[in-house]
Structures are given as structure tokens and as C-alpha cells.
Amino acid sequence: MTIIALIPNYNELAHVADVVRRTLAYLPVVVVDDGSTDGSGQAAADAGATVLTHPANRGKGAALATGITWALEQGCEALVMLDADAQHDPGEIPKFLDTYRRNVADIIIGERDFSQMPRSNRFGNSNGSRLLSWALRRPITDNQCGYRLLNRKAMEALRFTSSGFEFEVEMIVQAVIAGLRLAWLPIRTIYVAERKSHFRPIADSLEFLKVIWSARRRVRQALVKRQIEPA
Q: What is the pTM of this model?
């Protein structure tokens, strides 16, 4: 299993089995079931995924960290991260793999069209990307998209302390400071009408702002030490 698909799952019984089956057309699938109570972990296993289980819910970031650690232990050269809620089209995995094989980046991030999002999501995603661009002193076109490919260099370099939604932002921050190469890949913008979001508006927004402030400070320190160059 030199390249795998990694899917974090929390109570996504309505979608996870279909996402697993569609993803298996391209890559072996590892699902990290993050304390689900609706049987979706078993549904993922029945659909053909290798399932790693958290006994209790620990957050999306913790689930992804578990999967990345497992991939390193198994000797994987890269992994593709996508969500269990059907907002990422597995049919676009070949685009990520083609970009990976051209060796243009260590982390490849899906770039969505914000104009196709519901208004509330559009505001948060567009302004979040602007804030992170300011903090990192370089353009960040989509900071929240969870559809990503990480090569082994990235998996080994990143150290994850965030357990929630801010995990994906912290990944970009650490990558910039570590000098990893980032690239964005246009993908479909999909929103599932009946999806119940696990995003906590107040708590997760506060965590995001903490990450932004920390990123600005850390990048400034790195520039002083000449560890990175301004874009």
C-alpha cells in the first residue's frame, strides 16, 4: 500500500459506505472511525475499508493524526485525505495522483470555488483564507479544504497538536515554516443538503483565530532566523 486514501469518519452512516466504495476504485482505503455511535465504522468496514477506531470522539484532527501515524508505520509513500460526508468527489483522486507524480509539491490541497458555496460558508472560507494569507505573508487560496495529498516528507515533517477543525489550517502553517512545497488543485465544490455539520461556530472560530495569531508570530520569528523567505 504505497499510496492510500485516508477518510476520517464521525457518524456519517448516510454516506461513508458509498464514499469508501467509490474511493476503492483508485486506492486502498483506511477509515479512522472517531467514536461513531451510528454504526458507520462497521459500514465502512463492510464496504471494504481498513478501519482504525477511536473508542470516543476526539475530533477530526485527532482522527487524521491517527491515520497519518498508521500510514508512516506501514511505509506509505503518500496519502490522499478526503471526507466521509460526500463533499469530496473520489473521482478526482487521479488529478491528485497525476500532480503528485510530477513532484511539484509536498502537500497538494483542493481549491474550491467559493462563489458556489452557501453564503454562510462562502464568508467564512474566503475571509479565513485572507487572514491566513496575511499571517503567512503568502497567498493561501483555500485554507479549509480537507481534500489533500501528503507525500511522506510532509507526513514525517508535520507535528500535530490540534485535534479539531483547525488541524487543517495548522498543517499549512507548519508546512510553510518547514519549507514544504504547497500546491492547490481546482476541485468540484459540493455541498450535501442534508449534511449535519460538526463545526462549532464559536469554539472552532476562536481556535482558528488563535492559530492565525500564532502563525503570524511564528512566521515573523522564522523570517528573523532566515529559515524562510517572504513570498
A: 0.85
